[in-house]
Amino acid sequence: MIFTPIKWVSPPLGWFKLNTDGSSLGNPDLAGGGGIIRNHVGDWVSGFSRAISVTTSIQAELRAFKDGLKLAIDLEILNLEIEMDSLVAVELVNSITTPNAFLSTIVADCRFLMERFELCSLKHIFREANDCADLLAKAGCDQALDFISFSNAPAYVLEALAFDISNATRFRLISS
C-alpha cells in the first residue's frame, strides 16, 4: 500500500476544464448531476446542478457529462479538458465499441457533443480531485428545479473551490 497525492490541476493557458459528477441516493434512486467549468487559473467560469429523478448512478454520471458539454458549447469554449470520477462512464465514452443498448443513446450524444470542440480530452480522476462537481451533483438530488445554472459559485462549493486552487494536496491509499 502506498499513499498517492491527489490534486485538482488547472488546464493549460487557452483551455478550460469541465469537471462533472452524478449522484444517486441508491442504485437506482433519486439522482442529481452537477458540473463546473474553470479557466486556466482555476477561476469559476460557470457551473450547474440538475435534478434527474430516479435513475442509476451511471446514467446520472452520463447525464451530468452531457449537460456539462452543452454548457461548454453554449459558452463557445474551443479547447476543453474533461474530468470525471466515474471510470465506467469515461471508458464507455472513450471506447470505440457501442455500449449496451440501455446506455447507447446518451453515450452517442456525448461523443457527438465532444466533436464540437476544436480540442477535447476526457480522463478519469479520483473522487478527491472532483469535490466541486460532487457537491453540485448532490445538490441536484435535493433541488426542486430541474436545472440550475450558476454564473457565480454557490456558497456551498466555495471551500472546495478554494482548496482546489490552493497548494494543498489530498492523499489516497492505493494498493501496489
Assign a percent range to the helix content.
Answer: 25-40%
Main pleated-sheet profile:
6 strands, mixed
For the record, what is the CATH homologous superfamily label? Ribonuclease H-like superfamily/Ribonuclease H
Tally the structural domains. Answer: 1
The mean pLDDT is 95
- The count of DSSP E runs of length 2 or more, i.e. the number of strands, is 8
For the record, the CATH class is: Alpha Beta
Q: How far is the first residue's CA from the last residue's CA?
A: 5 Å
Q: Which sequence of strands runs across the widest sheet?
A: 6-5-2-3-4-7
> From the alpha-carbon coordinates, what is the Rg to the nearest angstrom?
15 Å
Which runs of at least 5 residues are low in confidence (pLDDT < 50)?
none
Hey, roughly how much beta strand do the residues contain? 25-35%
What overall form do the CA principal axes indicate? globular
Instruction: Please identify the structural class as seen in this structure.
Output: alpha/beta
User: Can you count the helices?
Assistant: 5
Do you know the CATH topology? Nucleotidyltransferase, domain 5
Please provide the ordered H/E string of secondary-structure elements: EEEEHEHHEHEHE
CATH architectural name: 2-Layer Sandwich
